[in-house]
UniProtKB/TrEMBL annotation, chain B:
Keywords: DNA-binding, Sigma factor, Transcription, Transcription regulation. PANTHER family: RNA POLYMERASE ECF-TYPE SIGMA FACTO (PTHR43133), RNA POLYMERASE SIGMA FACTOR HI_1459-RELATED (PTHR43133:SF8). Belongs to the sigma-70 factor family. ECF subfamily. This is RNA polymerase sigma factor RpoE. One of its GO terms (molecular function) is DNA binding. SUPFAM superfamilies: Sigma2 domain of RNA polymerase sigma factors, Sigma3 and sigma4 domains of RNA polymerase sigma factors. NCBIfam families: sigma70-ECF. Residues 22-88 form the RNA polymerase sigma-70 region domain. Pfam families: Sigma70_r2, Sigma70_r4_2.
């Protein structure tokens, strides 16, 4: 862990507002001196009991009685974070698929329900625009394309294509 | 600061082991803040995990405007604070000025630091006094003395004004010294 140097620390403390009461300011300086001397391991000045008491306090604060960090804590947390992130990802993917499915169903339903208006007109005009014999093999080609590309799309959305390689886990 | 940047970039790029490295780097800080705030070992473990999960989730929002240490400390502090608020535990105890000034008037002489340190009862009593402090005061002292976090960074972590932090540190230390003196008087 990066520790601030004493100079950095003192610079920071100077930036903090001082006390209006000179007695309090003196006491603050004494507290800070005790902290600095304790950190530096300076010898104790025998003539200042107040400073000595603050140094004892500083010593206690720097060696608290605390539960230690459990062994392997970082590893456990990292594993849990990974699991949470993956879980979130999966939920997001399911929602996306659900939305896409709903969109397709709504589209098909709309086309079907309104087909009475546009389908006969389209079928009527179709034979003139197509080459001869197209009405017999045309639907077969369309069905083949729809099956191939449609299945690829569905497999991609549902996630069935992940086993084919190319995607990192 | 550059180390922080590369570590954050590695975590965001999902480099294997990067987040574990980040946790290892800052787990001490998080653990100390949360344990000082809530004191309960099981809660500390759970909340510390929660804090790091939040760090993992929100790291893309970190803009390097403050040190990563401050940002993570801020997350840990807010997780612990919210926990105490949910449990309706007050995090701060307001002392009046008289209470803060009175310790300045008393002083005894002939204090032997080494003898007092060797006295296990004195040390245990002092630790008990620190433990008995309200969560905020306990946490501020830990950040300042154990983690050696400057007052400006503590302000960034806790959202308190620097003057308020300084005042808390001053009053708490003065009061603890007074209690230490009283305790030493009992043993004398």
């Amino acid at each position: 862990m990066n520790r601030k140097t004493f100079d950095d620390k003192n610079a920071n403390d100077r930036a903090a507002p001082g006390f209006d009461d000179p007695r309090m300011e003196r006491e603050w300086q004494l507290q800070e001196r005790a902290q600095r001397e304790e950190r530096a391991g300076a010898p104790m000045a025998a003539d200042d009991p107040r400073l000595a008491q603050y140094r004892l306090l500083t010593r206690a604060l720097r060696a608290p009685v605390m539960e230690p960090i459990p062994f392997g804590f970082a590893e456990q947390v990292a594993r849990r974070a990974q699991a949470v992130a993956t879980g979130n990802d999966r939920v997001e993917r399911y929602l996306q698929q659900l939305l896409l499915g709903a969109l397709v169903v709504a589209g098909v339903w709309f086309a079907w329900s309104s087909s009475a208006g546009w389908l006969p007109a389209m079928l009527q005009g179709l034979p003139q625009g197509l080459p001869q014999g197209a009405l017999s093999w045309g639907p077969v080609v369309i069905a083949c394309c729809a099956l191939t590309w449609g299945w690829d799309g569905v497999a991609r959305v549902v996630g069935l294509d992940r086993g084919r390689g190319g995607h990192a886990a | 600061m550059n180390d922080d940047r590369s570590l954050v970039a590695a975590v965001l790029a999902q480099t294997p082991g990067a987040f574990e490295r980040l946790v290892r780097e800052y787990q001490g800080l998080c653990w100390h803040i949360i344990q000082r705030m809530v004191r309960h070992p099981d809660d500390t473990r759970e909340l510390c995990q929660e804090a790091f999960l939040r760090v993992h989730q929100c790291l893309h929002q970190y803009r390097h405007e403050s040190a990563l240490k401050s940002w993570i400390g801020q997350v840990a502090y807010s997780v612990a604070k919210r926990h105490l608020e949910r449990k309706r535990i007050p995090i701060v105890e307001v002392a009046d000025d008289e209470d803060a000034l009175s310790p300045l008037d008393m002083v005894s002489d002939g204090f032997d630091l080494e003898a007092a340190c060797a006295d296990e009862e004195v040390a245990a009593g002092l630790h008990a006094e620190i433990e008995a402090l309200p969560p905020l005061q306990r946490t501020l002292l830990t950040l300042y003395h154990l983690e050696e976090v400057p007052i400006g960074e503590i302000a960034a972590m806790t959202g308190l004004a620097e003057g308020t932090i300084k005042s808390h540190l001053f009053r708490t230390r003065a009061r603890l010294r007074q209690r230490l003196e009283a305790r030493l008087g009992e043993f004398a």
